[in-house]
Design brief:
Layout: E1 2-3, E2 9-10, H1 55-67, H2 89-95, H3 98-101, H4 113-130, E3 134-136, H5 142-159, E4 167-171, H6 177-184, E5 188-192, H7 200-206, E6 211-217, H8 229-238, E7 242-246, E8 266-268, H9 271-274, E9 289-291, E10 303-307, E11 310-314, H10 330-366, E12 382-385, H11 395-404, E13 411-412, E14 421-424, H12 432-451, H13 454-457, H14 470-475
Parallel strand pairs: 4-5, 4-6, 6-7, 7-8
Antiparallel strand pairs: 1-2, 3-9, 8-9, 10-11, 12-14, 13-14
Helix pairs in contact: 2-10, 4-10, 5-6, 10-12
The protein binds pyridoxal-5'-phosphate.
Length: 485
C-alpha cells in the first residue's frame, strides 16, 4: 500500500508504468487541409509505443514524482563538498531576461555587447575575488575547469622545454576528479599522505624535477585550511613546479583570503557551488579557471576582452584551445553574476563567515556523540566518523535513519581518508533553529544506535522505497518507460 502526500491511498500499478490504450492528451480539430506526406526515411515503421494518457494523468504523474524528490527548496540539505546551497529566485529572473536568454551563441560580437559585457565583468569579479589576474569562464564544470588548468600547466612547462615533468602530486584527501583530471591531461598521478592537512616534509619528499604540479584543495575536503600552504607553494616553485588549487571550497574563503595571494598558480571556481546556481542531476555547471599572469596566454579561449567601450571575443595567444562549442554555460554565468552583484563584497564575506560559523555550531553540538577524526578547527564543513557507534551501526544506517527524520543525508564515505566518514556542510543560509532540529535528530539517532539499533538498520521506513540496490541502480539503470504487460 502506498499513501500519497495528500493522504490518499494510491494504486501502485498506476504510479509509473501507466498507460490506457487509445487515451490521448490532446484533441485536435478534424483535418481540413490536404494531408502532407513525409519523406519515407523520416517515418517510423511501427508506432513507438509511448504511454497513452490523458492530459490530467500526465500532469498528475509529473507533479506526483516532483513531490517524491527532496531538494534545497524542500528542506535542510547538509551534503558536504558539493555546497548545494542558496539558489536565489532573483537569479532565475535575471537569466530568463529575453536579451540574455535568447542571445544566439553565434551572434556576431558587435550585436552581443550585453552578453560580452557580462562575461567580461564576471571574469574581472572572479579575478578580484581570487587574486588571479586572468580568468576564462569557458569550462562547463569544476572537473572541466581542472582539465583546462592542468592543460595550461602542461603547456607552460612545454613552453619552457620541461617535457620531463610528467608527474602530479595529489594528497589523499582529494576529490576523485583531481587524479582523473591529471591522468586525462597526460600526467602520472603520485598520491601523497596528509595528516589532515599537508605537511611541508611530505611535499618536499616527493617534489622532484619530474613533478609538474601539486594539486591541492583549500580548504581541503575535511573542511580544514591547509595551514602550510604558503611554505608549500614556495617549495614547489623553488623546485620548478606549479600549484593547482581545486577551488570547490572557495565559499570558506570569500572576502577573507585570496588563493592567488597564497602562492597558488591556477585554480578553478565552481560557479554552481560557491556562487549559488542550482545543480541537480549533474548539471548544468560552470567551472571558470583563473591563473597567474605568466600562465594567462595558455587559458582556454576565446576570452571576453575589452576594446575601449566595446567588447569582443579574442585570444589568448598560446591558448590550449577551445574546451567546448561556443562560450560555456552562459545561463549559469548570468546567475553567478547576479549573485555576486546582489551580495557585494561585504555580503560575500558575510556568507563565508556564516558558513564557517554554522559548520562549527554543528560540530560543537555533535562532538562527543560522533567521533571527530581531526581535532583541527573546521571551516565550512565538518567530517565525523562512525567509529564510536555501538551495536555494529554504521554511517549508512545513520544516513538512512536521517531520512525518517525528514532530512536529506549528508555526504557519506567521503573523503576516503576517514573510514565511515559523515561530512556535514550546513552552508550560510540555515537558521539556528534548523541547525538545532537537525542536530537533535543526529543526537537522537546516536541514542537509538545504543538503545534500539534495529531502528537504524531497518531505516528508512517512512519513504516510498526502502533501502535500494544502489550499485544495481548505478550499473543497470532503468531510465525509460516500459509498457506494462
Ligand atoms: C564538486 C567538486 C569537484 C568537481 O566539480 P564538478 O563541478 O562537479 O565537476 C572537484 N573537487 C571538489 C572538492 C568538489 O567538491
Amino acid at each position: 500500500m502506498i499513501v500519497g502526500t495528500s493522504g490518499l491511498v494510491l494504486n501502485e500499478k498506476l504510479l509509473f508504468e501507466h498507460s490506457d490504450a487509445g487515451r490521448k492528451g490532446y484533441s485536435l480539430p478534424a483535418l481540413d487541409v490536404p494531408a502532407a506526406t513525409l519523406p519515407d526515411g523520416l517515418c517510423r515503421e511501427e508506432i513507438a509505443g509511448f504511454p497513452e494518457l490523458s492530459e490530467v494523468d500526465v500532469v498528475r504523474h509529473f507533479t506526483r514524482l516532483s513531490t517524491w524528490n527532496y531538494g534545497v527548496d524542500s528542506g535542510f540539505y547538509p551534503l558536504g563538498s558539493c555546497t548545494m546551497k542558496y539558489n536565489p529566485k532573483v537569479n532565475e529572473v535575471a537569466c530568463r531576461l529575453p536579451g540574455l536568454a535568447d542571445v544566439h551563441p553565434a551572434t556576431p560580437d558587435h550585436l552581443a555587447q550585453g552578453a560580452l559585457t557580462l562575461m567580461y565583468q564576471l571574469q574581472e569579479m572572479l579575478a578580484e575575488i581570487s587574486g588571479f589576474p586572468a580568468v576564462s569562464v569557458q569550462p562547463a564544470a569544476g572537473a572541466h575547469g581542472e582539465l583546462a588548468g592542468m592543460l595550461a600547466i602542461r603547456a607552460w612547462h612545454e613552453a619552457r622545454g620541461n617535457a620531463r615533468r610528467t608527474k602530479v602530486l595529489i594528497p589523499d584527501t582529494a576529490h576523485g576528479t583531481n587524479p582523473a583530471t591529471a591522468a586525462l591531461a597526460g600526467f602520472d598521478v603520485v598520491p601523497i599522505a596528509s595528516q589532515g592537512v599537508l605537511t611541508l616534509e611530505e611535499v618536499a619528499a616527493h617534489m622532484t624535477d619530474e613533478v609538474a604540479a601539486l594539486m591541492v584543495t583549500n580548504p581541503n575536503t575535511l573542511g580544514l585550511f591547509e595551514t602550510n600552504i604558503e611554505a608549500i607553494c614556495a617549495l614547489v616553485h623553488e623546485r620548478g613546479g606549479l600549484v593547482y588549487c581545486d577551488g570547490a571550497n572557495l565559499n570558506a574563503l570569500l572576502g577573507i583570503a585570496r588563493p592567488g595571494d597564497l602562492g597558488i598558480d591556477v585554480m578553478h571556481f565552481n560557479l554552481h557551488k560557491t556562487f549559488a546556481t542550482p545543480h541537480g542531476g549533474g548539471g548544468p555547471g560552470s567551472g571558470p579557471v583563473g591563473v597567474r599572469a605568466d600562465l594567462a596566454p595558455f587559458l582556454p579561449g576565446p576570452l571576453a576582452v575589452r576594446d575601449g567601450d566595446s567588447y569582443r571575443f579574442a585570444g589568448p595567444p598560446g591558448s590550449v584551445g577551445r574546451l567546448l562549442a561556443f562560450h560555456g554555460n552562459f545561463g549559469i554565468m548570468v546567475r553567478a553574476f547576479a549573485y555576486i552583484r546582489s551580495m557585494g563584497a561585504q555580503g560575500l564575506r558575510h556568507a563565508t563567515e556564516m558558513a564557517v560559523l554554522n559548520a562549527n555550531y554543528v560540530r560543537a553540538r555533535l562532538e562527543g556523540s560522533y567521533h571527530l577524526p581531526y581535532a583541527t578547527r573546521s571551516l565550512h564543513e565538518v567530517v565525523f566518523s562512525d567509529r564510536d557507534l555501538p551495536n555494529d551501526c554504521h554511517t549508512l544506517d545513520v544516513a538512512k535513519r536521517l531520512i525518517d527524520y525528514g532530512y536529506h543525508p549528508p555526504t557519506i564515505y567521503f573523503p576516503l581518508v576517514v573510514k565511515g566518514a559523515i561530512m556535514i556542510e550546513p552552508t550560510e543560509t540555515e537558521s539556528q533553529e534548523t541547525l538545532d532540529e537537525f542536530c537533535d535528530a543526529m543526537l537522537a539517532i546516536a541514542g537509538e544506535a545504543g538503545a534500539d539499533p534495529e531502528l537504524l538498520k531497518n531505516a528508512p521506513v517512512r519513504t516510498r522505497t526502502r533501502r535500494l540496490d544502489e550499485t544495481g541502480a548505478a550499473r543497470q539503470p532503468r531510465l525509460k518507460w516500459e509498457r506494462p504487460c
